[in-house]
Structure formats: structure tokens, C-alpha cells
Amino acid sequence: xxxxxxxxxxxxxxxxxxxxxxxxxxxxxxxxxxxxxxxxxxxxxxxxxxxxxxxxxxxxxxxxxxxxxxxxxxxxxxxxxxxxxxxxxxxxxxxxxxxxxxxxxxxxxxxxxxxxxxxxxxxxxxxxxxxxxxxxxxxxxxxxxxxxxxxxxxxxxxxxxxxxxxxxxxxxxxxxxxxxxxxxxxxxxxxxxxxxxxxxxxxxxxxxxxxxxxxxxxxxxxxxxxxxxxxxxxxxxxxxxxxxx
Length: 245
Prior knowledge:
Structural class: alpha+beta
Helix content: 25-40%
Number of strands: 8
Number of helices: 7
Family: Belongs to the JMJD6 family.
Oligomer: single chain
Strand order of the largest sheet: 1-8-3-6
Largest sheet: 4 strands, antiparallel
InterPro entries: JmjC_dom, JMJD6_ArgDemeth/LysHydrox
Distance between the termini: 23 Å
GO molecular function: 2-oxoglutarate-dependent dioxygenase activity; sequence-specific DNA binding
Catalytic activity: L-lysyl-[protein] + 2-oxoglutarate + O2 = 4-hydroxy-L-lysyl-[protein] + succinate + CO2
Strand content: 15-25%
Number of domains: 2
Organism: Drosophila yakuba
């Protein structure tokens, strides 16, 4: 599992949201897809939840004329817009896995205690990068009237971090961190103990390294990275040289 570096989002180091001691009946999370385009799971300890969840692309049927998504949904709205969706009634001791990009809304039908966990890894890192790019584009469009100001790109990156949770530098630093761990796994006899008693096998390490190479090559072709005053392209080229051993 890959996690954002400490301090980049308001979760613990492991990405586990502390369970709420008492989630009141009839409360809900608004309609959304999970942070960064991450995977997530949610395990009920006590109580009953109701989920409405849909595959990627179905959310576009709910856009208004400006492209905005609704704050809240229900079955009537989804049926009227011919949205393909699933209803999940989650009981105690049951877990729901949410794939990347699946929009959903959740209701607490009773008082509830649950544990929720978000993460991304080699399987969905390309989607996280695409979401990061899309959010930067949205930020730049939002303040496009300020393009002539000094350090416009730096301001956009600051706003990207504030709105999305990470910016381009954070993303590259995350790749560097994961690459250092996987390269160490690939070249030394001693394996890192990730959690409990799990140690990655060689196939897992090589798969992660190949995905890191692919995503780093994509980053080096990005114009924002190429022209960044922070020498982000140099960072990416340096990482690529380390990965192409």
C-alpha cells in the first residue's frame, strides 16, 4: 500500500480515519468519490449503513449545465437520470470495498461505529496522477484572470495543495520515497516488514518498480513539470535514472 507523506492530508500516518465513537442515526456523508481517486474500505463495527454507489462515468449523468455534481442523491434521482447504481445495506461485521473513482453516498440508518481506510498503490497511481492534473487545471482556470502576476504557477501549486491535498512536488516526493523502499527491497537480502508479518515477494517489488518507471516517464513529458522553476523535471529525470537499473 502507498500512502501520502505525513502532513499532506488530514489522516493518520497509516491513512486510517479514527472511528467515531457515536455516529448519530440518519446522518450521512455527502455524494462524493474518495480522496485522490484512492481505493477505500469501510468496516462496520456496530450499526447499519445504506450505500448508493455507481461505476465511474455514471456520475456524469447527474451533472448540471455547469458541470457541477449534486450535493446529495437518492434512488429517485438516479432512476430519473438512468444511472446504473448499486444499493448496499451494510451490517455490523461487514466491510465494503470502494474502487477508485466510484461515486457514492452513505447513510447511517442506526447509531454506527465504523473504521475507514484510504490508500493508493501501483494499481491506481496513474488515476491519482490524472486527478492531480485535472485539479491543477481547475485551479488555473479559477484564477485565470491572475495569469500575469509573478509566480502564478507557484500560486496554483499552493492552491492545489490546499484544495486537493497534495501538489506536484508532494506527488514526486511520494514516488521518490516508494522507489527508495522498493529498490532497497530489490537489492538487499533483508526485506522490510510492512505490517503484521507481511513481506513483499519479488514479483510484487518488480511490479511496483515497473509502474514507478511508467508513471515517472509520463511525468517527464508533462509541460508543467518541464517548465517548473522548482526543477521538477530534474527530480523526475533523476528518479528515472535510479529506476532504470
